[in-house]
Amino acid sequence: MSRKTLRILCFGNSLTAGFPAGKPYAERLKEKLEDAFLGHGYGEILYEVDGVPGDLVTRGSYLGRMEDAWKEANRHREPYDWTIVLGGTNDLGWGCSAEDLIAGLKRAWDIPLSQGGKVLALTITDTRSRYKDIKERRDEVNKAIKEYKRHNFFYFDLYTAIPYHDMAPEDRPKYWEMDGVHLSGDGYNLMGEKIAEQLIRVIRLAEAQEDDIKSIAADPKQRKAIEEMIYEEERGNPKLLSQGYIVVRKSDLD
Fold first, then answer.
1. How far is residue 82's CA from residue 48's CA, in Å, rounded to a whole number?
2. In a domain, 79, yes or no
3. Domain-embedded: residue 51
4. What is the pLDDT of residues 19-72, one digit of tens each?
5. Do the domain assignments include residue 36?
6. Distance, CA of 254 to CA of 233 (rounded, Å)
7. How many other CB atoms are found less than 10 A from the CB of residue 133?
8. Which residues contact 78 (CB under 8 A, 6 or more apart)?
9. 235 pLDDT tier (thresholds 50, 70, 90)
10. Residues 49, 215 contacting (CB under 8 angstroms)
């Protein structure tokens, strides 16, 4: 049985690039994915990091970079299986509205989604700043990320996973830079581990679901019809994988 290659694009700004520590979270992400999947259906885990410090979703090179990354991948007939998208911290700092930022993120997500890729969108991270206006706009954007529903779209709440203000004060120097915006090397390792946990969970659930569909529908057209029915975008449907609820056998996850 041939083993698949898992291709991942880690896309965003300085937190994706691993600035200023020079240690992208993708490094630890790959390690955790290899531990979980190498020898279990996958033969290789490949990743690319496309993070530009200071770039803005709303008026920077963000969308153009996403388009270029996917054009280049398709040119070599190696599209990404997953695009992990993070952006918005810089936009909030420059006073961009939540509405414009949400619209920009949706345009960025649409590039991989429209080409058959899967998206794992990350919520905007916490910072040391307590400006009420920034917090309110960040909360609005993060809420929109978590409520967005589309086939092959998933999210991970990075804001909650790596808090600043809710973290024990003695732990902050280990994971956060002094600016209270960027992470340290240990922080980026933690970020990679947290994202990997979510991605592993989603991939395993999707594979379990696919196996169940194949067991009841051998014909490809029938399977496609069942998949479309499962992914029908009805809010509150507990059967929707994109909403995080599915019943699987424990043996499928071992």
1. 11
2. yes
3. yes
4. 999 999 999 999 999 999 998 889 999 999 999 999 999 999 999 999 999 999
5. yes
6. 29
7. 9
8. 7
9. very low
10. no
